[in-house]
Design the sequence.
């Protein structure tokens, strides 16, 4: 163990001696690297950052069902599932394409319109400068980086506005066809019910009455005192005997249709609400503001890292160069 320590100590002393002997070269390289890094850092375009923070809403509909109301109300903040869904929407082409078109990002990012890979470059530039991240509190943070501080804030706030627009469009893509089906079914039930009511009215005009009414017809016939009354009630009884079964069947069908339509009414109202509602799907915690200080580049960090890197590289380079000379002498 002591031998290893002595060898390590000797190697360290040899390294220190080597560095001291080459100190002028090392210092020169380090100074040059520091000067170059300072110049480069000063030439780099300042990048500004604007941030908007939103919370997803727990529900995206006005509910007519007690179960759905109990599950989530429009005042509740969304949880992990809703946050993940919101991130996916923010990263979708529906929002990206609108932002690209509205702010002319193809020209802003200096991408040639005739370039065959312009879409790839645009997508890469967009994803590098516009970021969406979940925070530990369950909210979504929208970060926009740009050399124009005002533009960065405008893009961030526009993305926040597009959340409702895009999500409502996605919802309507599903709810409008569903509402059309519900409306068609409701219209069909209403038409069928209207046909039955029309037939019942026709039978009623002939004198056909319900089962309870027929019992009174027989009683009235028996209790009638004169021939005219008996003839009248006899005709009514004959009509009811002929069409009574049809009337009863239509009446049962009408009651079934009414009950079915009554149950269907809630589903119809829900589908109508889902198809025609334009709801707010997020809570805005913080709007993006125009940054008054650049976010990057960090010039001090660039200079320090470049200088340290040059110092270490110069030592390594000189060690390798010295070793090559030794190997050539031995050869």
Sequence:
């Amino acid at each position: 163990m002591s031998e290893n320590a002595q060898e390590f100590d000797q190697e360290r002393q040899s390294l220190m001696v080597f560095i001291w002997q080459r100190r002028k070269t090392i210092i020169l390289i380090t100074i040059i690297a520091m000067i170059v890094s300072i110049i480069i850092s000063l030439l780099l375009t300042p990048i500004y950052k604007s941030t908007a923070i939103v919370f997803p809403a727990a529900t995206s509909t006005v509910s007519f069902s007690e179960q759905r109301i109990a599950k989530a109300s429009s005042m509740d903040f969304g949880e992990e599932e809703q946050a993940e869904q919101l991130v996916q929407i923010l990263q979708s082409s529906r929002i990206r394409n609108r932002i690209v078109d509205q702010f002319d990002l193809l020209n802003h990012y200096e991408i040639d319109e005739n370039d065959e890979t312009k879409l790839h470059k645009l997508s890469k530039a967009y994803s590098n400068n516009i970021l969406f991240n979940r925070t530990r509190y369950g909210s979504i943070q929208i970060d926009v980086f740009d050399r124009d501080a005002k533009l960065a804030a405008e893009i961030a706030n526009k993305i926040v506005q597009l959340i409702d627009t895009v999500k409502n469009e996605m919802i309507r893509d599903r709810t409008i066809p569903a509402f059309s089906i519900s409306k068609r079914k409701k219209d069909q039930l209403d038409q069928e019910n209207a046909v039955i009511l029309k037939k019942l009215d026709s039978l009623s005009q002939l004198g056909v009455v319900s089962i309870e009414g027929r019992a009174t017809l027989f009683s009235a016939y028996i209790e009638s005192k004169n021939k005219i009354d008996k003839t009248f009630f006899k005709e009514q009884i004959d009509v009811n005997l002929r069409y009574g079964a049809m009337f009863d069947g239509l009446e049962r069908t009408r009651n079934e249709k009414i009950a079915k339509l009554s149950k269907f009414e809630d589903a119809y109202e829900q589908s109508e609400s889902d198809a025609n509602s334009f709801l707010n799907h997020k809570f805005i915690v913080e709007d993006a503001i125009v940054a008054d200080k650049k976010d990057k580049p960090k010039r001090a960090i660039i200079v320090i890292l470049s200088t340290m890197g040059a110092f270490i590289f110069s030592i390594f380079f000189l060690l390798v160069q010295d070793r090559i000379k030794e190997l050539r002498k031995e050869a």
